[in-house]
Amino acid sequence: MIEAQRLTRRYGDFLAVSDVSFAIDSGEIVGLLGHNGAGKTTIMKMLTGYLEPSAGAVQVDGVTVESDPLSVQSSLGYLPESLPLYPELSVVDYLEYAARLRGVDPAVAVRKAIAATELESKALEPISTLSRGFKQRVGVAQAILHEPKFLILDEPTNGLDPSQTQHMRQLIQRLAESATVILSTHIMQEVDAICGRAIILRGGELVLDERLADLQRSNTFVLRSTPDADIESLLQSLSVTTSVARKDSGNWQVEVSGELDPAAEAIAAAMVGGGHSLFELKLLKRDLETVFREVNEETQDAA
After folding, report:
1. Among 72, 176, 191, 36, which Cα is nearest to 116's?
2. Which of 88, 91, 216, 280 is 20 to 30 A from 21 via CA?
3. Count: domains in the chain
4. 53: domain range?
5. Which is it for strands 220-224 and 251-256: parallel, antiparallel or unpaired?
6. If we measure between CA atoms, which residue out of 120, 119, 177 comes closest to residue 151?
7. Given this model, what pLDDT does residue 291 score?
8. Are 114 and 6 within one domain?
9. Residue 143, φ and ψ in degrees, nearest 5
10. 2 against 300, higher pLDDT
11. Do residues 43 and 17 lie in contact, with contact meaning Cβ atoms separated by under 8 Å?
12. pTM check: above 0.90
């Protein structure tokens, strides 16, 4: 488990991260989401021991990072946003060098890392000649040389084209079979595609921490009837209904409480019983982009 306990980080008078706490269990793929400057990279640096918190602490499997950073870092793999590559070295030479720094056998570790990241065709080429996508794979390869239990990836698809992005997503999903993954990004589609949980930051503060299945769950139905149907009072009278709003001609949003299936049945029965046409009744789907926008708007309104 990785546990952040009231993490705070200041740079002079600037508060980059403020009192952030969360815990990530083994086997999770967690997206750390936020606009540029939200504090994602600062938190990742504190999780890895690269940066000391101004207040608070990080524990990895019960060990505090500040008390024993080398022990903690031996179980962590880290891909920073700025790739730690030596362009004049070949892929193999660079990974062998990184393996020795990690204290693992280069002969075994490099072969496994190259196979895991599918770098066989580029193994002997200088890093400077590689595309952005292959350089990202080399960055991931150095992060997994020691087969870490925890993998922390900062903007792993940054600058990649759609094909390279898809390959990186598949690679992360394979790595997650044997490691807990924390993925930092400002791209919501990345979290939607591969994560089971989202932690959303804004202005250095944690504003949401939920499983994607839970935060995308909706209790609002979209209802379509005839343009002239006046059904607000009819639906408001139902015990299952909490609000009714006309969106445009013939289209309504109906928010309900309790179980969804009985609520849908009650709405449909009321429409038919009232002599109104019912062309469509479906649950409103909330994607991560919608949730992200709602969270940021709520935070701004509160400010």
Report:
1. 176
2. 216
3. 2
4. 2-215
5. antiparallel
6. 177
7. 78
8. yes
9. -75, -20
10. 2
11. yes
12. no
